[in-house]
Each structure stands twice: as structure tokens, then as C-alpha cells.
Amino acid sequence: MADRLVILGSKGGPALRPGGPWPSSALLEAAGRRIVVDCGLGVTRGLTEAGVSLKNLDLVFVTHLHSDHVLELGALLHTAWTAGLSTPVRVYGPAGTAHYWTRFLQAMEFDIEIRIGDEGRPDIAELVSIEEYGEGEVLDAGGLRVRALRVDHPPVSECYALRFDFSGRGVVFSSDTTYFRPLADFARGADILVHEAMLADGIDRLVARTGNGERLKEHLVASHSFAADAGRIASEAGVGRLVLNHLIPADDPDVGIRDWIDAVRPNWGGKLTVAEDGLSLPLGDGVVDTPAP
After folding, report:
1. Is 52's pLDDT higher than 60?
2. Which of 2, 117, 216, 258 is most buried as measured by Cβ atoms within 10 A of its Cβ?
3. Which of 44, 46, 28, 45 is nearest to 36 (CA)?
4. What share of the chain is helix, strand, coil (3-state, %, to 5)?
């Protein structure tokens, strides 16, 4: 299994529109592990399209409990179980993740019990373990080290950037955050920084489409990073590559690749990729920069 990063869902926010991208989720294959980072709607489909056998699901990390990052966690685990999962899966998430999982099992109680009895499946509750984490070291085993940094994403207080270090490489996910200077220290020297990005020109059109008006706009501006901010963090951290992800807006016909590049380049002159669903980046040589049209 070659090390790679796959962006399964590149969209910021939970709403879906015809022909548009899917919300946040990613696959990191590293240190012999299959690691899912966030479980927005579409993560199960994204994993299968990336060639991952769901019965080999291994590690799952949730950065925070906004629906576009956690909505399909239960469905992913249940679908993996019906696909033949028989080995333990460890889920790491912030405070509240265990409560989510307990309620999911309760909601699916009829289906789970009847499949255990009728189809001879193992008890899914015994296969899945939930570990809630806070800031600091989350995991250090088998050549994989995972650390968490609490970021600034009001009103959500339990929101974490995650850093994965393995085989002399580092991959950092910013999660959802405003410009947060400590993130640059956290990401220092990483090979890849996957950072959320927003374009100011698209916000008014986005809120007009959703109908939430000024309240949604206030949230976006207070809780998320503009593309220029992502460039600042990448430059201050000295990362090898910046991947713009969790794009806001992600499905605006008036926004193209050139807009993202123009927004980030004043602050970042290094290697740049603008995410899209299904984007696969080998962790090593062979990564192609996002071309400017």
C-alpha cells in the first residue's frame, strides 16, 4: 500500500447541490494504516471509489462535531460492518463523539440486532471503540504519531487541527478555523498542509442561495479562514505543499481555479493544490501542482 492522501469531499458546509462536490472527508494511507479524517456526507462512497475495501476500515478521526464533518460517521461504520468488517476499528473524536455513537446504535437497534441474529454477524458495538481526545498527543504506535491542536472555530470549542507524522513525513489538517497563528508552529516543516479556504467574493452569493442571510455571513467570517490566511499559515510554517480544501464557496459557477490561485499567491509562493473530490496525492514524488487556466 503506497502512502497517499485522497480528498474524498472538498466542500465546506453541509448543503448539497446538483452536480456539486461533497462535504469534508479525507483518506490518509500511511504507516500501513488506512486513516479516515472526518466523515461528512459521502465519505462511504468516496472511500469505495478510492478503492478501499470497507471491511478493512482501520482508524477514523473526527476533528469536530459540525455535521459536515461527522454526519456519516455512524453510516460509514455500519456499512463497513455489513460489508464484512470483523476486525476492530478505533474512532478518535472530540468530547461528544461517544454520545453520538451511542445514539446511533440506539437508532439502528432493530437492524443491528436482527442482522446479528439472522446473519450471524459479530456485535458492531464490540468492534468499534470510541476514544475522545483533547489537545496534545492522541496516538503514538506502529510508526504513526498523531497530535491535536485546539483551533479557533467559534462557537465550537472542541475543534482540533490534526498532525500525522510517519516515515519522516508529516501531514497536517487545519480543520475549520479562523486565521490562527499557533497553527503555523503546529504545522512547522510538514510535507503537506491541508487548510480550509474561503473567498470573500463568493460569500454574498452563497448566503443568498442558502437563505440564511447575514447570520450565516457573520458565522463564516468569524469562524473560517480566507484563502490568503491559508497562504500565510503555509508560509509561516514552511510546509512542502499547501492543499486548499473545505472550499467556501465550492460550487459557485463564477468561481474557478484561477480565483483560488490569485487569492493565495500574495502570501504563498510554494507548491499549491486546490482540492476537488477524488483528488489523490502520492506522499512523495509525482505530485502535480494545480495548473492555472
Report:
1. yes
2. 216
3. 28
4. 35, 30, 40
